[in-house]
Amino acid sequence: MSEIIKVLVANRGEIACRILRTLDCMGIAGVVVYHPVDAASPAVKMAAQAVEIHGRSPVAAYLDMENIITACRKTGADAVHPGFGFLAENASFPRRLAEEGIVFIGPLPDTMALMGNKLAARAFCMENGFPVLPCVSEQKTGKAFAAGAREIGVPLLIKAAAGGGGKGMHIVHDLHDFDTAVLLAKAEALRFFGSDAVYAEKYVESPRHIEVQIMADHHGHVLHMGERDCSIQRRFQKIIEESPAPGLTPDLRRQICDTAVDIARKSGYRNAGTVEFILAPDGQFYFLEMNTRLQVEHPVTEMVTGLDLVELQVRAARDESFSLTQENIKPNGHAIELRLYAEDPEKEFIPATGQLLAFHLPQGEGIRVENGFAEGMQVSAAFDPMLAKLIVHDTNREKTIDLALQALKETLVLGVTTNADFLMRILSHPAYGSGRIDTGFIPRYQAELLPPPLTHEQRSLLLAAAAISSREFMDAAFAVPEPHSFFGNWRN
Description:
Radius of gyration: 25 Å
Largest sheet: 8 strands, antiparallel
CATH superfamily of the largest domain: ATP-grasp fold, B domain
Helix content: 25-40%
CATH class of the largest domain: Alpha Beta
CATH topology of the largest domain: D-amino Acid Aminotransferase, Chain A, domain 1
Number of strands: 23
């Protein structure tokens, strides 16, 4: 059994805080690295030790493996948890850590290289008879790539081979737009994942995005923790996730979860991972990708199962055998996660920046908050604009939606624009309430999800309120100018 005494969290924000909490409960010292822009973050204050790192940009600092290795040496950390993003799915990272005798809390490097690369994972699934959508990988010449895309036919989805989170993804409805979409996807892929490799797959219209949380130890136990529905997305990035997925028949749920376990077992998977599927309107499902790390939305699974996935990750990394069996894992109630972003839904979700002048997040029974910001901190354009995650849990989906709405009403953010009102309108929409959701939900109902234009009367009232609250305007309007101010009791 590998002994783990001190863990360095090679990440930032809410996921760093979340991992540190579990480490503290397990009696394991937690260390974080931080770029100067994160110096005032809650994660830095929570950690037993914090090491400042640098790079040509804030993101580059967290992507530098040698920064992490040096921090481990300075603090005596004997293990690293990568969180999600940054180095979490880079197979070179655990290999580099192994050279230094540092435990990686995640999958084995060879499995990461296989399943963490979308092209390799797709080829593996096809070879082993798992359902996969038609696709073509980028060839040495653009002509060959385009020819393969024409053979599949539109609509196509261009995707980054080495990443996820909606980055480097573009839909092509007309092959005349193919080359432009590829160039855009490659540029984004290189920026976010360090590799510009892309591929094109058949795009299913109105699909649902269903994923299965799996966990495997080093003793042959591969378990699933149920499924999540992540269909509510904007720009291919999830903003609302829930578990269990609404509307699945017991047989379809069993098929999807069993397929996820079979894929993980066949690949020799260890530790936490997520197998993602596209569910077509006709009920057919297809392997999409495997995320070889902890997911942003893992708390909804924890809420319905009562399990701590980070604790299971650490135990797997210590070579412990799981005492859990599949029969022990049963969902209890319903959970929904809301991603609170600093962005403007009325302006195509453009990220917002500024200082958090007020930052109040909800509390109460059935409400869990994952947060990496504090009041007074600056929200910069350097990172993903997610401010926090609100996770709610109740006995059924209807009550959970009501609790989610209440949590959003109690959320107060001043200083930056957020998507809080937009999330409330989604939750209140009849189609969402009835479970009629797919990845095209937001574009389909966009007119209903955005606030109506202001009337002339509303605009006039807002301008009047802004003028009255302006010190400069009030001084100009009511201050008595010289020489009249010397006469006393003068009214202008």
